[in-house]
Specification:
0% of the residues lie in helices and 45% in strands. The protein is mostly beta strands and 130 residues long. The protein has one domain: Sandwich (Immunoglobulin-like). The termini are far apart.
Length: 130
């Protein structure tokens, strides 16, 4: 089996596990811009000890390129765990992160997220150069 066979996708507006990539549709070459990646934007994802998003990874694949560039890895480590038991802890991390990027070519921003119960999920958006 290949890893690609385990990655699921869908519309983030109807599936709570799909990562959301928010970025401008067009940017100026070489100028910084912010990209927000999150899970649970439209339908909240549980953030409990038993069921949570562990990480999101962001890639950029230039148009026409065979390979993608790893742009960032964001871990979410607190899910209410505590010595007192599941979901009794004082701290929770929400699966949301912002990365500031610069690109010089148009392409696709791709995000992959990992749910500790439901596995790998992906989505992408295109970014043009103005």
């Amino acid at each position: 089996m290949r890893v690609s066979e385990m990655v699921q996708s869908g519309d983030w507006k109807g599936e709570k596990h799909v990562p959301v990539v928010e970025a401008p549709q067009s940017v100026k070459a070489g100028e910084p811009f912010d990209v927000t990646v999150s899970v649970g934007k439209e339908i909240p994802h549980p953030n409990t000890t038993e069921h949570h998003i562990r990480w999101i990874r962001l890639y950029f694949k230039p148009q026409g390129s065979k390979f993608a560039y790893d742009m960032g890895y964001f871990e979410f480590n607190a899910h209410g765990e505590a010595a007192g038991g599941p979901n009794t802890g004082p701290a929770y991390t929400e699966p949301c992160a912002v990365a500031r990027l610069k690109i010089t070519e148009p392409g696709e921003l791709m995000a992959v997220s990992y749910c500790n119960i439901h596995g790998l999920w992906e989505s992408s958006v295109s970014v043009a150069i103005a």
